[in-house]
Amino acid sequence: MDYIIGIDVGTTSTKALLYDLDGKIYAKANKGYTLYQNVPDMAEEDPEDIFNATLQAIQEVVAKGIKDNGKVLAISWSAQQHSLIALDKDFKPLTRTLTWADNRAEKYAAEYKENGRGLAMYKRTGLPIHPMGPFYKLLWLKNEKRDVFDKAAYWVGIKEYIIWKYTNVLKEEISMAAATGLLNMKTAEWDEEALKETEVTQDQLPELVETTYKIQGIKSEYAKVMGVGEDVYFVMGATDGALSTIGVGAIETGVLAINIGTSAAVRSFVDEPQVDPKARLYCYPIMNGKYLVGGPINNGGIVFSWAHDALFGAEKETAKLLKKDSFDMLTEIAEKVPAGSNGLIFHPYLGGERAPLWDANARGSFFGLNRSHTRAHMIRAVLEGIVYNLYSVTLALKEVTGEPKAILAAGGFVQSALGRQMLADVYEHEVVIPDSYESGSLAAMFLAKMSLGLEDKLEDIKKYIGSEKKYEPDDATYERYRRLIPIYIRLSRELATEYKSIADYQREFPDAEN
Amino acid sequence: MDYIIGIDVGTTSTKALLYDLDGKIYAKANKGYTLYQNVPDMAEEDPEDIFNATLQAIQEVVAKGIKDNGKVLAISWSAQQHSLIALDKDFKPLTRTLTWADNRAEKYAAEYKENGRGLAMYKRTGLPIHPMGPFYKLLWLKNEKRDVFDKAAYWVGIKEYIIWKYTNVLKEEISMAAATGLLNMKTAEWDEEALKETEVTQDQLPELVETTYKIQGIKSEYAKVMGVGEDVYFVMGATDGALSTIGVGAIETGVLAINIGTSAAVRSFVDEPQVDPKARLYCYPIMNGKYLVGGPINNGGIVFSWAHDALFGAEKETAKLLKKDSFDMLTEIAEKVPAGSNGLIFHPYLGGERAPLWDANARGSFFGLNRSHTRAHMIRAVLEGIVYNLYSVTLALKEVTGEPKAILAAGGFVQSALGRQMLADVYEHEVVIPDSYESGSLAAMFLAKMSLGLEDKLEDIKKYIGSEKKYEPDDATYERYRRLIPIYIRLSRELATEYKSIADYQREFPDAEN
Ligand SMILES: Nc1ncnc2c1ncn2[C@@H]1O[C@H](COP(=O)(O)OP(=O)(O)OP(=O)(O)O)[C@@H](O)[C@H]1O
Ligand SMILES: Nc1ncnc2c1ncn2[C@@H]1O[C@H](COP(=O)(O)OP(=O)(O)O)[C@@H](O)[C@H]1O
């Protein structure tokens, strides 16, 4: 039997899934690694750690899932965006990988926002003005780490580096290249101005290829360890954002893909490059005639997890005794409170925010407290706040993509029926939840099939997605959200005036981060 | 031996204390009554209930405290302000007593705020523009309860009514009269304009007397029940606000009295009528050459009690097992968090607010949440928020009274060393905590002594106050509060723009008050 491995190099771990050619899953593996954050705003990972995680994850799914003499035809790659590694002329890393969460280039993003050049660059490249972008990381390195900058022979992302380690081929596919902010979104070539500003030359960057580009001939020692043939194809794949959108079947313009995992995102494909005049959304070319527009959101399920830990310590213990999932139990508690949480409104910006604010200083808040409110209202307000925030990003997206034709949602947060219904009620729109949970890996697998000539239309991924659940908005409920959301949005503006002062305070008093 | 009883007719209960002439306490009694709130914004009490509570409380302290043939020389009265009862020509109540917490006159207060007449009346009477004031209650009754209004032969407060029940004498002393908003603060006579606007005539109001005015000759049946002689003096006394200020020894201009009980207040005596151009403070004549300026605050310890119940259910049980006071335990938890609560700021307006906002729609909020915050930070932020709010009222008071010469604090909140130190740190000023906890009754007793010619200078109350504790601001701590308070104050303005919309939502969805 033939297999394809879809592998997703995430921020905290790498997941590999072993599929047969019909999309059935035979094995899963998950390998974590360390995020280095020992300096403020730093968020680095060791490329060798990540390489090893991919090796072990593949080894594990092969060992667990393949019986008799099955054969892995291809390994197809999904990965985190915005990572940056400097390599010397022998392709040896001069830095760890700077992840999307690394904010040390903040000063340069702020400068570019201030002087208008950020907006101009955004219009060329589709990268919002934010330190996550390799464009800004390069400005920071050029100005503040000149030694590394001067020694760098190549600049690559983590996926390119890993594929190079396996194959000795250094290429970059378009979606990942776009997320660097160095790619011109109209030509899908490296952008001359971006290169000039960062003082990076084309020959320091990988050659650009399509997402379905395949490489044959991996190093024999790695093939042996993983238990695959040396003739296995490596398919370039795409960014996790692009793939998880494809993987829920959101292919056409105006079909929204919502993902609420640890972080969250709202995305849609469009046929033409589309920029948001207020630079709240990214826009990256993904493949021929397909551009992905969307808003990346820091404060997704991680905020639910915070509330879970910070407010419900005792209940967590109770859940354990009941042999219940504690997130499920909190969701049950939240269900006992009326929609709208008795007018308690939560802004979920615990960790600063990308879309819709693009403000690293943003902080969370509860507003509207009266004496009727308890922790039960707080937990419901937290869930509602996460969804209001997604909705406010969607309002920006709608300005570009029009009214949504359909809304597809995935991620840990929609494991709960309450979360799914809340999406339908806040959006006042049917919400469809595909059954396949690992949408990124599924899409990676599908790209491999296209690459191998076994599929030819992106739309055909829908065959693999399987059954879906549908949630319709409830009249009585959305009436409440309709009243509260404008307050939520107006308050966002009011509160924003004090984000810098409070974040400065929190940074300045060292014990204030405990 | 001779005794004096100080009795305080509060909002939820009446407390009587039996003193000897040296101010030593021999017995205490406390009798509660019902607050009727069955209609939105209504807050009424039954005058007969309250009368009975006073009778029983006096009976109890006499029975418990007096040995042999001791004699009660006088019973001296403190009471809640702003209450209003309509009496018919036979002095029978036509209404229950409308307490200060009754907000049904809101529409009239709003109208007077809008059209500027509220400010003009405030400048004459010292009553802030708020439905608590009998002036506004009369406007409401006149317009919306015309039958009662037309039948009323007399308008009185609860203290006057009770004293009348005991003595058949209907008089009102100046401090209580001032709190109606019908008294001209400069002349200390009923204000012509206020009477014209409310269509109340002088002969419908009690005759005005001094706070030390005494009445002899109570009805024999009541004397018998209470166990006192028919020749006992009833001393008019004053408002609870005036007496608790005198009772901590804050007599001179610029000596601040802070009280944080269920509600809270910041007050100071001044020698001249003083109005706040922004009408944030009241100003009432109390006695010859003594005017009380201050801000009444709804959200005092009641907010700590809310946090205690709403956020710390499990810990309350733990405290019980430990045989610890659960408020003490929460204070201990709050002490484990650095001052400034890691930049978490709480606005305590759970129940609307009088000073400094005078906005019944105000609501509570937490601002500045990051992932480091837990319930421990929340409880500390709640305590700090209560104190920041008091401080912001004090800023308004300072505009009138100048820099404080001394700060004296009392009330349940300052039972904790943390609360006391927090006051010193936020105010950046020494805070003195008198030992005598029942400052209102003590001052009532002292007024009785003046009335009986046993004391003649108000300042001499200090002899009775006993020992004090002093708290000095801590450098490292107040630096933090100095950073956070301006953010707190600026945010107050930002948040205020959405109080009406959220309060409207909470009123409109009936289940949203559970
Ligand atoms: N151990 C404690 N430490 C600190 N604060 C406490 C403690 N126990 C109670 N409190 C606070 O004190 C408040 C009650 O204070 P107090 O007994 O002075 O109120 P009160 O007389 O009802 O109030 P008011 O003066 O407004 O009529 C409670 O609401 C609570 O928040
Ligand atoms: N039972 C549950 N119900 C609702 N939400 C959940 C549940 N369990 C976990 N979550 C949320 O899902 C988030 C993780 O989602 P997931 O998609 O697994 O994340 P990742 O982005 O790391 O892959 C958690 O942060 C948590 O808030």
From TrEMBL, chains A, B:
PROSITE patterns: FGGY_KINASES_1 (PS00933), FGGY_KINASES_2 (PS00445). Residues 256-450 form the Carbohydrate kinase FGGY C-terminal domain. GO terms for biological process: D-gluconate metabolic process. Pfam families: FGGY_C, FGGY_N. It comes from the Bacteria. Residues 3-247 form the Carbohydrate kinase FGGY N-terminal domain. GO terms for molecular function: gluconokinase activity. Keywords: Kinase, Transferase. Gene3D superfamilies: 3.30.420.40. Belongs to the FGGY kinase family. This is Gluconokinase.
